[in-house]
Amino acid sequence: MSTISNKICLIGDFGVGKTSLIRRFVDRQFSDKYLSTVGVKISRKSTEVTDLQRQKHITLQLLIWDIEGSTKFKGVSASYFQGAKGAIIVGDVTRPESLENLSEHIQAFLKVNPKGKTAVALNKSDLIDAEYLEKYCQLYSFNDNKSFVSTFASSAKTGENVDEIFQSLANSMI
């Protein structure tokens, strides 16, 4: 079985849960303590994917770049997107302004990586009613964009859809 490494970025406003999603996926842990990412933090995790063209299983090592969400940082962040095959764009469902910025984050990533794939994580889904969550999932589905994989209601705290986000993005990159 062959191994391939692909870089992915987690992008979103500050405090939306990018670091928590990565920690849940990579380390199977969650902490309520807020730790602001300064610059970028890189994690690794291997996952199995199927190459449908070659009909074989591949081990995909994800190089996961956790990129600072500060608005002051936007000019520098594009350089961190270089070479990424995919991105998870994260919004906080308890902060509608972070959801309004999802499209801008997608465009910033695709400007650097026009062939990249994107998935949206509507994070902290355990903190709002299901009816609002369903509306957000419909509203922030970017199906008109060919790079778009899917929108997921996620919770780093409960683990809801965390593996599915990363796995879905990994599958789309093969």
SSE topology sketch:
Elements: E1 2-12, H1 18-27, E2 40-51, E3 56-67, H2 74-81, E4 86-92, H3 96-100, H4 102-112, E5 117-123, H5 130-139, E6 148-153, H6 162-173
Parallel strand pairs: 1-3, 1-4, 4-5, 5-6
Antiparallel strand pairs: 2-3
Summarize the structure.
The chain has 174 residues and is an alpha/beta fold. Helix content is 32%, strand content 32%. Strands 2-3-1-4-5-6 form a six-stranded mixed sheet, sandwiched between helices.
Count of DSSP H/I helices: 6
Q: Could you spell the SSE succession in H and E letters?
A: EHEEHEHHEHEH
Structural class: alpha/beta
Radius of gyration based on Cα positions: 15 Å
The share of residues in helices is 25-40%
Strand tally, please? 6
Describe the structure.
- The chain is of the alpha/beta class.
- Helix content is 32%, strand content 32%.
- It has six helices and six strands, in the order βαββαβααβαβα.
- It has helices at residues 18-27, 74-81, 96-100, 102-112, 130-139, 162-173; strands spanning 2-12, 40-51, 56-67, 86-92, 117-123, 148-153.
- The protein has a six-stranded mixed beta sheet with strand order 2-3-1-4-5-6, with helices on both faces.
- Helix 5 links the parallel strand 5 and strand 6.
- It starts with a strand and ends with a helix.
- The relative contact order is 0.22.
- The mean pLDDT is 90.
